[in-house]
Design goal:
By secondary structure, the chain is an all-alpha fold. It has a single domain (5-87), classed as Up-down Bundle (Methane Monooxygenase Hydroxylase, Chain G, domain 1), CATH 1.20.58. It is 86% helix and 0% strand. It is built from 3 helices and no strands. Helix 2 (44-63) runs antiparallel to helix 3. It starts with a helix and ends with a helix.
Length: 88
């Protein structure tokens, strides 16, 4: 365990950030899963709605450095392509 005051603070911050990031990543996984399930079911309207939610969450996670911004953009693009395929 850390002994210096600053190191103790950094430890507290890392625990807080770890919890926040873990929650965000779980939510991302669940929303992306909802999009994939809608795609597999062939429900274009449900997939569009789920994609809208997933896009918002992924963008926010990218901005907040929960995941890398390019990783978020790549995931959004791939989901969009999959949703467009069932819509066509």
């Amino acid at each position: 365990m850390a002994n210096h005051k600053s190191a103790l603070k950094r430890h507290r911050q890392s625990l807080k950030r770890n919890l926040r990031n873990r929650v965000a990543k779980t939510r991302i996984k669940n929303t992306v899963k909802a999009v994939r399930e809608a795609i597999e079911a062939g429900d274009a309207t449900k997939a569009q709605e789920a994609l809208k939610t997933a896009t918002s969450m992924l963008d926010k996670a990218g901005r907040k450095n929960v995941i890398h911004a390019r990783n978020a953009a790549r995931r959004i693009a791939r989901l969009q392509v999959a949703v467009n395929k069932i819509g066509a």
